[in-house]
Amino acid sequence: MQYISTRGQVSPIGFIDAVLMGLADDGGLLVPEQIPQVAPSILKQWQELTYTELALEIFSLYIDDEIPRADLQKLVESSYATFRHTEVTPLQKLSDDRYVLELFHGPTFAFKDVALQFLGNLYAYVSERRNSVIHILGATSGDTGASAIEGVRGKEGIRICILHPHEKVSKVQELQMTTVDDANVLNLSVKGNFDDCQRIIKDLFADIDFKHRYHLRAINSINIARILAQTVYYFYGYFQAVKQGSPAKINFSVPTGNFGDIFAGYLAKKMGLPIHKLILATNENNILARFVNEGLYQPGDFKETYSPSMDIQVASNFERYLYYLYGEEAGIVASLMAQFKTDGRLTVSGDILAQVQGDFAAYSVANEACLDTISAYHQTYGYLLDPHTACGVTAADQLAAPGEATITLSTAHPAKFDEAIQLRQIKQTYPPQIQALFAKPQFQTVVDGTNEAIQAQLEKFF
Ligand SMILES: N[C@@H](CCOP(=O)(O)O)C(=O)O
């Protein structure tokens, strides 16, 4: 499989080069040259696979024999051996038509571990096999950072620097990142919000001289490996729902900020998984919901919400969707992105908007409504949702029609967001791994949110 850029100015490259390139060198995002198609007969066979077996089959479609199958199998097995649940991503049935796919059984209690345990191991493999220098630069609104750090801490030949918005992540998220004392980890607490962090890293990746001089590698969902790893749980969740007797129409509801997770679902559907509706759930930072419902893609005012990981305005994977929305015409995507840079907005209407609304249904969840859902599900089902998952469940309740079953992706364990849970007087016990964080010293550097300030830190660290 070869990978090309959404902006069309990068010669096709193999999987490992695509992972190492991260952001495409022309400023676009890498996508597979063709999306592999999975026939219904194969889907039927896949229903019987374990999570790791399924991951191996799906990765093989995108990696060919660039990584020998035996090596790939070892990478996959070691990545999911760190999960606390034997099913890796178990499906919980709450009622006949409401399911929650728990993606938080990895080391940092968030869905990011599903892809980042694999990507961390893949980087170590590539570093050894190709003797490549791996200097990871990432931005986080809370979950990606901890997970990426956990994936590579202490690994030979790898360094990682993560930017998080100063005092805008939950206490547990902050502790998970900043209590790591391995010498290959640098945490920068940036004065600003997540969009500032993401803009800075994108600018640094787009500065090709700087990127090559410091061997910058990406762990955010701009990296195609993240998306591919995240498609696996759509297949797995769907198969489990079928086995548990779900009705024929199965939706997924996806809490989303950076559009990576829901783009993985879109890709799974394009591969042939018969997902009925893809429900896009945002919090009050609702640029994506406004795009789907009104055709306007324009950042609004930044809001701090109970679901801080989704406090995002400019969604980095949106460009990948534009590429498919406009019939894989890289020239159109390049000019749309140039237009967005100049005008700060994009609009779609007519047939294109109808296509968007055929691809997604979207709902933006108000802050208090998110807490109401947490209380209601706790009372009705005795099930504690984290605030991000609660946004997904709220959107499912609004948009799923009778006769449809909806699987909401549960993106994080509620213990990561006790600040919000406590507002509804719900008491939870922290898992011991999280409780232990409170006794540890923290290591982080507070910096201004400017490219120059970050660049200076990176020059010292890399
Ligand atoms: N919600 C994310 C933001 C970064 O998204 P990514 O999927 O591109 O890594 C976070 O928790 O950091």
From TrEMBL:
<dbReference type="GO" id="GO:0030170">
    <property type="term" value="F:pyridoxal phosphate binding"/>
</dbReference>
<dbReference type="Pfam" id="PF00291">
    <property type="entry name" value="PALP"/>
</dbReference>
<dbReference type="InterPro" id="IPR036052">
    <property type="entry name" value="TrpB-like_PALP_sf"/>
</dbReference>
<keyword id="KW-0663">Pyridoxal phosphate</keyword>
<keyword id="KW-0028">Amino-acid biosynthesis</keyword>
<dbReference type="InterPro" id="IPR037158">
    <property type="entry name" value="Thr_synth_N_sf"/>
</dbReference>
<dbReference type="Pfam" id="PF14821">
    <property type="entry name" value="Thr_synth_N"/>
</dbReference>
<dbReference type="InterPro" id="IPR051166">
    <property type="entry name" value="Threonine_Synthase"/>
</dbReference>
<dbReference type="InterPro" id="IPR004450">
    <property type="entry name" value="Thr_synthase-like"/>
</dbReference>
<dbReference type="GO" id="GO:0004795">
    <property type="term" value="F:threonine synthase activity"/>
</dbReference>
<dbReference type="InterPro" id="IPR001926">
    <property type="entry name" value="TrpB-like_PALP"/>
</dbReference>
<feature type="domain" description="Tryptophan synthase beta chain-like PALP">
    <location>
        <begin position="88"/>
        <end position="403"/>
    </location>
</feature>
<dbReference type="GO" id="GO:0009088">
    <property type="term" value="P:threonine biosynthetic process"/>
</dbReference>
<comment type="function">
    <text>Catalyzes the gamma-elimination of phosphate from L-phosphohomoserine and the beta-addition of water to produce L-threonine.</text>
</comment>
<comment type="pathway">
    <text>Amino-acid biosynthesis; L-threonine biosynthesis; L-threonine from L-aspartate: step 5/5.</text>
</comment>
<comment type="similarity">
    <text>Belongs to the threonine synthase family.</text>
</comment>
<dbReference type="InterPro" id="IPR029144">
    <property type="entry name" value="Thr_synth_N"/>
</dbReference>
<feature type="modified residue" description="N6-(pyridoxal phosphate)lysine">
    <location>
        <position position="112"/>
    </location>
</feature>
<keyword id="KW-0791">Threonine biosynthesis</keyword>
<dbReference type="InterPro" id="IPR000634">
    <property type="entry name" value="Ser/Thr_deHydtase_PyrdxlP-BS"/>
</dbReference>
<protein>
    <recommendedName>
        <fullName>Threonine synthase</fullName>
        <ecNumber>4.2.3.1</ecNumber>
    </recommendedName>
</protein>
<feature type="domain" description="Threonine synthase N-terminal">
    <location>
        <begin position="2"/>
        <end position="80"/>
    </location>
</feature>
<keyword id="KW-0456">Lyase</keyword>
